[in-house]
């Protein structure tokens, strides 16, 4: 604990964002370049080095947060990087994309603003790359065993890196043309520039991990033949089966799923397309769904030059303070939060029909109506109460040339042939069934990440990737492993 009074004398300060009018003109990350390092030393001083640090429990990776806070406050970046990477393969991802449940569990957050753990994590990761503290770590010797990892999102990449470093020969199969899964084509560049992903993939290649792109197992690659070729298989395909909205007018042109829309915008940033065929430019956009994916659609539509963009959230607007009875510390509370995309829509007045920033709260979609050519032109909605029951007299309509459905995901897509090709058992909710050791009903086949857990956070995906790697290593070695297993397949976030 570098400064015993730091939590008393220093207020919380976060990485400042660039002005909204400036940042919507590009796809770069929203934060002011170079403005983080002057902040994090003081913020790390606010850490109380608690006797029982609940930030450990709130983070599924078990990050050693008080330790690297202390090291950052002393400007020992090399040691801080070592402690951070001891539990997290990709802290530059989580430092940008994770909603920071660790901060909700910070003991200081009982009655003060929490330590800016996420910002400190990001600063350590970026400094480690700049200073060369994260060289490739190839294994000293090979085990002679080969593992296939299907899917290159955060769970698949974490599993592959852990298994490669343990000495196994690992090949990652990715159905898209580039590595990264959701990190590549689902997350907009303004939240995480792809150079961070490219850098990690380069490190993994240097360590010995092999990558196979444009290889959809079950369609391009026979699933059963792949299983026969490898000593073990890890399925980390993510939850790609999107939830539908079954209301009248769903069949109209211009109504699309978020994950049909976002990858095209990312491909424009990659240089594959000059313009997205689903571009929001000049169109009235309505995003149905109040979560992070909906906010990603919002920020993307603003950058594409939408005439207006409104986000519908079926839940009532949450409060600014934690409800101690319903969501007591250290659980992750549902609060009114202003993401970068919402801030942009508010400042630029992109959503004139919204209650606050770009959102209409407690709003449920009734139907879509279109023109004589069969293209959507309006979304009709109704206000709802806490039980999602319609409120009389609250019906209204919004102009809508483009509707984006961001309603979440239920599990892996059954249409690609992977599940049926391997004969995998499934849970009633649509995820891959597995036992306490991450093993499926097929010998030698394991499942991790959203494909088995269901839709979750990037930090849970990395934790599952590390844990399934330990399970596979134990399987291949005959019962022992030195790899850490931070979570079990049935672990869940803390709740009241």
Description:
This protein is an alpha/beta fold. 33% of the residues lie in helices and 13% in strands. The chain is built from 19 helices and 15 strands. It has helices at 6-9, 20-23, 37-45, 54-58, 65-73, 77-85, 91-97, 101-104, 117-131, 154-165, 182-185, 195-207, 223-229, 258-270, 292-304, 340-347, 418-422, 450-453, 458-477; strands at residues 146-150, 169-173, 210-212, 232-235, 241-242, 255-257, 284-288, 308-313, 359-361, 363-370, 376-383, 396-399, 402-405, 409-411, 445-447. The strands form 4 sheets. Strands 3-2-1-4-15 form a 5-stranded parallel sheet, with helices on one face. A 5-stranded parallel sheet has the order 6-13-7-8-9. The protein has a 3-stranded antiparallel sheet with strand order 10-11-12, with no helix packed on it. It is globular. The model has no long low-confidence stretch (mean pLDDT 96). Residues 38-69 form the 4Fe-4S ferredoxin-type domain. InterPro entries: 4Fe4S_Fe-S-bd, DPD_II, FAD/NAD-bd_sf, FAD/NAD-binding_dom, Glut_synth_ssu1, Glutamate_Synthase, Helical_ferredxn. Residues 1-20 are annotated as: Disordered. This is Glutamate synthase subunit beta. Pathway: Amino-acid biosynthesis.
């Amino acid at each position: 604990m570098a400064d015993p009074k730091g939590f008393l004398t220093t207020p919380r300060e976060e990485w400042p964002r660039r002005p909204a009018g400036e940042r919507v003109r590009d796809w770069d990350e929203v934060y002011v370049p170079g403005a983080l390092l002057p902040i994090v030393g003081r913020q790390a001083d606010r850490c109380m080095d608690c006797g029982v640090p609940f930030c450990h429990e709130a983070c599924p990776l078990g990050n050693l947060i008080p330790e690297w806070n202390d090291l950052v406050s002393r400007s020992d970046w090399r040691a801080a990087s070592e402690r951070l990477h001891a539990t997290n393969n990709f802290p530059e991802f989580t430092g940008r994309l994770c909603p920071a449940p660790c901060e909700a569990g910070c003991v200081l957050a009982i009655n003060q603003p929490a330590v800016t753990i996420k910002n400190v994590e990001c600063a350590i990761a970026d400094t480690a790359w700049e200073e060369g503290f994260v060289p490739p770590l190839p294994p000293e010797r090979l085990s002679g065993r080969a593992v296939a990892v299907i899917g290159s999102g955060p769970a698949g990449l974490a599993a592959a890196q852990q298994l490669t470093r343990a000495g196994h020969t690992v090949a990652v199969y990715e159905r898209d043309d580039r590595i990264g899964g959701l990190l590549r084509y689902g997350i907009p560049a303004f939240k995480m520039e792809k150079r961070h992903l490219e850098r990690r993939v380069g490190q993994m290649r240097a360590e010995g991990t092999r990558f196979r792109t444009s290889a959809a197992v079950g369609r391009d690659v026979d699933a059963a033949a792949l299983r026969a070729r490898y000593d073990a298989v890890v399925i980390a395909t993510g939850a790609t089966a999107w939830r539908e909205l079954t209301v009248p007018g769903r069949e109209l042109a211009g109504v699309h799923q978020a994950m049909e829309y976002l990858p095209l915008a990312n491909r424009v940033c990659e240089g594959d397309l000059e313009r997205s065929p689903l571009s929001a430019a000049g169109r009235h956009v309505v995003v149905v769904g109040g979560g992070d994916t909906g906010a990603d659609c919002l920020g993307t539509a603003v950058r594409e030059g939408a005439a207006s963009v409104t986000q519908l959230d079926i839940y009532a607007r949450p409060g600014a303070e934690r409800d101690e009875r319903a969501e007591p510390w250290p659980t992750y509370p549902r609060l009114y939060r202003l993401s970068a995309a919402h801030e942009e829509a508010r400042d630029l007045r992109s959503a004139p029909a919204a209650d606050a920033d770009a959102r209409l709260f407690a709003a449920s979609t009734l139907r879509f109506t279109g023109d004589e050519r069969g293209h959507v032109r309006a979304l009709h909605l109704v206000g709802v109460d806490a039980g999602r029951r319609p409120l009389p007299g609250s019906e209204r309509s919004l102009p809508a040339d483009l509707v984006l459905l961001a309603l979440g995901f239920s599990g892996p897509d059954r249409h690609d042939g992977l599940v049926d090709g391997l004969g995998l058992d499934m849970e009633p909710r649509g995820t891959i069934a597995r036992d306490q050791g991450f093993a499926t009903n097929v010998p030698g086949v394991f499942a991790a990440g959203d494909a088995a857990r269901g839709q979750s956070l990037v930090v849970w995906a990395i934790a599952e990737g590390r844990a399934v790697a330990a399970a596979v290593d134990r399987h291949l070695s005959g019962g022992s492993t030195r790899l850490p297993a931070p979570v079990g397949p049935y672990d869940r976030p803390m709740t009241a």
